[in-house]
Amino acid sequence: MTLLAVSLFQSTFGSAPTAAASAPGRVNIIGEHTDYNGGPVLPMAISRRTTVVVAAGSGWEFVSETEGRRAVDIDAPLAHEWTDYLCGVVRELRRVGAAPAGARVAIASTVPIGAGLSSSSALTVAAAAALSTLAGRRLSRHQLIDVTYRAEHDQVGVRGGRMDQTTAALARTGHALLFETGTGEIHPVPFPGRAGIVETGLSHRLAGGALNERRRECEEALAILQGRWPAVATLAALPERDLAAAESLLAPEMRRRVRHVVTETTRTRAAADALGSGNLSQVGRLLVEGHESLRVNYESSVPEADLIVESAVRHGAYGARLMGAGWGGAVLVLAPREHERRVLRNVASDFEREYGRKPSGWHTRASAGVRRDPLRVP
What we know:
By secondary structure, the chain is α+β, with helices and mostly antiparallel strands. The protein has 2 domains: 2-34 and 45-165, 2-Layer Sandwich (Ribosomal Protein S5, domain 2); 196-365, Alpha-Beta Plaits, CATH 3.30.70. 42% of the residues lie in helices and 20% in strands. It starts with a helix and ends in a 6-residue tail after the last strand.
């Protein structure tokens, strides 16, 4: 991808870039909507990456292989398009004294956009690493997490947690990360095999809309429950034994949201244990339970994802579930190695029969996080 980004930079700006960095997309094996509720998540980086190459400029110009070229005023109101993420990164780099005065930026990526694979964090983490290098600062991976979280959360308005930025920065080859968002603890968990990814073909927008509504519901539910349990700092900290009592205090919609968060917290830790011991059948069962909770309790699934999950399990997968914020995106499929390709072929056939189109399906291994790439100019 570096060569593609360099070529795009040269053809657009007529010169060569001077710094480059790349960061991966991610799949979250399990632990959906728990990160902003103080619970555990179990993500891993995928092999598909976003590369950002940069050089100094008198102002700010961005070019993407898919979105075209833009000249941007960093201090102007955000435009509600892809450049907002880059503007947010620059603004937050300025806060820590790690932004250049101006730059020309080119972006190339193999991470699907809107598929629940964290294309936005792959972009922001890679951009923060490249731009800070251009400014003569070598931010640590944890500094990159802080900068890019604020860029997405505070600047763009994506009210998620830190899972995506943490994975893009800290992921390890051949491992998932059990990330306890309530405490900040991170434990590598071996993931030596492959995961299947089947895209629903439905894109979602993270800023605004349903995700922010769900987060608001969770915050309101927590405020109510703290009247009964003042020491419970987050929804994920509510013991499952108190779930029935908690539900009796809540309206039906909030009740379902809390049930998902509390049970997903239990499922995620159990899945990490099962993955660590190589019990993929148990991991698969937990994936299916998690998807059903997303469908019924969090109401964030879509019929296309439900069909993929049902088809995958019927054709021999250990389990499957919708990933990402929901309302579109992609489904993770965990299958025995000897049946991986057959399962995805059969899922694609079932999907085409129902919806008249074939979904994109592929496999990935657990990959490494952000890196500053050597520049190779063609």
